[in-house]
Amino acid sequence: MAPPRPRRAHNNARRTYSAGTRSAGAGQVGRGGAHSRFTVVRVLLVVLLCLAGGKLVVVQAFEAEALSQSAERQRVTPIDIPAQRGSIVDRNGTKLAFSVETRTLSVNLKRMRQDWAEFAQKNPEKGQNFETRAAAAARFIAAKLPGKTSERELLDLFHKPQDFTFLVNDIEPSIAEEITSKENFPEISKEVRSKREYPGGPLAANVVGFASWNMENPDVSKHNLNGRVGLESLRDNDLAGTPGRRLVDTAAGNDALVIPGSQRELQPATPGSDLELTLDADVQYELQRRLTDYVRKTRAKGGSAVIMDARTGEVYALANDKTFDPNDINTRTNELMNNRAVTTPFEPGSVNKIVTAAAAVEFGLTTPEAVQSVPGSLKVADHTVRDAWEHGTQNFTTTGIFAKSSNVGTLLLAQKVGEERFAEMLTRFGLGKRTGIGLPGESPGSVPPRNQWSGTTFGNLPIGQGLSMTVVQMAGMYQAIANNGLRVPPRIVEAKVNPDGTRVPEPAPEAVQVVSPQTANTVKDMLRAVTQKGKGQNSGTAPMAAVEGYQISGKTGTGQQVDPRTGGYSDSLYNITFAGMLPADNPRFVVGIRLDAPEATLPNGHSAGPLFHDVASYLAQRFQIPLSDQPAPVVPLVLS
Q1: Which residues are catalytic?
Q2: 296-to-207, 472, 561, 611 alpha-carbon distances in Å
Q3: Is it true that domain 281-639 has CATH number 3.40.710.10?
Q4: What is the pLDDT of residues 41-63, one digit of tens each?
Q5: Are strands 315-320 and 638-639 parallel, antiparallel or unpaired?
Q6: Domain map of the chain by residue range?
Q7: What is the pTM of this model?
């Protein structure tokens, strides 16, 4: 049997194999080219990844902080949080100054010009550009703030050659919100501000002063009110508080557009402290009103007055006839803001005779009833001193010398005291030194140094010439006599109230025992005769200062002013003064008054006694001061 024949498939397989071999050879060449290209790409990717990795290392290792800060600056904006400024209140809690929250409008002019120039270029058909936008904004804002600004004023601000400007200050928050809303003018920014309110206007303005936001130099204020004059300035650190700080995210390229919900507080604002004053707003009002009227009636150049607690030295009222309204910027002149009651000393005249009276009694040199032989004139060195009225040698009681205000009699007593003891007494009364009342610009007045006294110096000082004092210093001398010889320096701030409500009283002033209580009571009783109305020559110099039902002690003064043309003492310009105690038998208040050159030819133009009477009568009624147990006795002043 023959073996089987091989299958055709076998041959086909060979052919397939051959064909496959040829095909495989061609395919091998193709895969080699692709492989080369893949290798190149892979190498390039590796290089790129290396470069990127290297850059990443550089960025992360060396530039990360700088880039982070740069990115943060582009979107994070720090904003100050204004601190609530403390209030200033009187002794009864009546507000003399307080703050309310307001807004200030501002605009980045550079950005506004750029944005609207781009808008006009991209949208020429709309006919809108910076000029039309500024005009629309000015018109809209002026309509919302009638009387506060005008369209013309706003247009001028929009066209200032600067990159930035403030537009309007002290705007109600709701109105500012409407103006700067997205629907109106979002390119205009609003900033939180505080506006200082003075509900009494000129009431105690020279004491309180004023505070405002520094529109001319915003970097100084740091979004807080700044005290400019008065207590607002002197106690600015107490009142101002400490601003806080917060961060907000803003839209790229526009710090004015705050991203909602992005605010985060870094440090809260700390409110300022309140100040409690010793002033009584009602008493202050009456003193200002009555002083201003009296200055006008006597045609004086000006006047100042003070009401002081006889025991504590607390100032209930401190007034000048000329003052300003802190709410009215047009009244904020240097002349009107000057608190002359503490800044402007004057030669007081005979009110200074209290120094001689106190020294003569304290050193046992006289008594109220002792009789002094007083000539009509007295020569001191090369200067002759005379009394205000012509008289020959007369017998005065010591009380009469001061009640009649005899210059010659006063100098005779001063010579008994002696220059050294008299100089010591001036120091005890605090003359030539600031009282420390707690107000800015206080003058110490002037007293010639003892080693510079000339032959005529001791002929001037005892009668109130050749030295100067403020009306506060003058009243302080009489406070010492009213307070059993203990001088308590005046003060006008009672306490500071911190934001947490803790009350911090001002440090108590250091009291000075000027004379003994016995001497003080003796001098006080002698000075009752100044207001007595007796027969003949037994009337004092100011019976018009008397108050019915009360004993009054006081002293008049007429101090010659220096004539600016000649440099010597004037025969027509005088400081008219009065200092008095109410009531003399149990002093509650001391009142000091100074009139600057009133016309002596007019009724009351030569005396401040009537003004003291009006002020003392008001105080007696206002505080329901009990009547004196008995009227002051009428005592002999000049013996025939």
Answers
A1: 350
A2: 22, 22, 20, 12
A3: yes
A4: 566 676 667 666 665 555 455 55
A5: unpaired
A6: 105-269, 281-639
A7: 0.83
